[in-house]
Amino acid sequence: MKIAQMKSCKLKRWAVGLALALSSYAHVHAHQCYADPKQAYQALIAKQSAQKAMSERVNINTATAGELATLNGVGAKTAQAIVDYREGFGRFERVDDLTKVKGIGVKTLEKNRHRLTVH
User: Fold this and answer.
1) What is the total count of domains within the chain?
2) What is the pTM of this model?
3) Is residue 44 in some structural domain?
4) Rounded to an integer, what distance in angstroms lies between the CA atom of residue 90 and that of residue 22?
5) Cα torsion 95, 99, 101, 107: sign
6) Distance (Å, rounded) from C-alpha 8 to C-alpha 69?
7) Beta-carbon neighbour count of residue 79 at 10 Å?
8) Strand, coil or helix: what is 56?
9) CB contact set of 106 (below 8 Å; sequence gap of 6+)
10) The pLDDT of residue 34 is above 60
């Protein structure tokens, strides 16, 4: 294969991969438009990283307020309340003990149960 043909193949594979990535991103964020494909790709990677962070398990006995704030329905104030409760009363023995913290109800606990752990 000639060098020009090899470069052409690599370019086509890159373009197909980028097109697939952009089409999946466009499906989620159709309102966002990028003139530069590299900028669109970076936005896609940032979105995927954020989604990964949102799906990772959170140990409520060791998590920082920032990590706790990634939970569904938990803002900065409630996340800090969890940390303060843990510092004042000690480790959580069960995930359900999280409802003892002001601002965390059963609904919030259930929305996040799949992500919570108490190692």
Assistant:
1) 1
2) 0.57
3) no
4) 47
5) positive
6) 46
7) 21
8) coil
9) 99
10) yes
Residue 99 pLDDT more than 70? yes
59 membership: H or E segment, kind and range: strand 58-59
Q: Return the closest-CA partner of residue 107 out of 83, 80, 86, 78.
A: 78
Alpha carbons within 13 A on the beta-carbon side of 49: 6
78 inside domain? yes
| pLDDT: which is higher, 53 or 116 | 116
What is the CATH number for 89? 1.10.150.280
pLDDT digits (tens, 9 = 90+) for 64-76: 999 999 899 999 9
R_g (Cα) of the chain, nearest Å: 21
pLDDT higher than 70, residue 21: no
**Structural domain boundaries, residue 97:** 56-117
Angle at 51 between CA 47 and CA 54, to 5 degrees: 140
DSSP 3-state assignment of 93?
coil
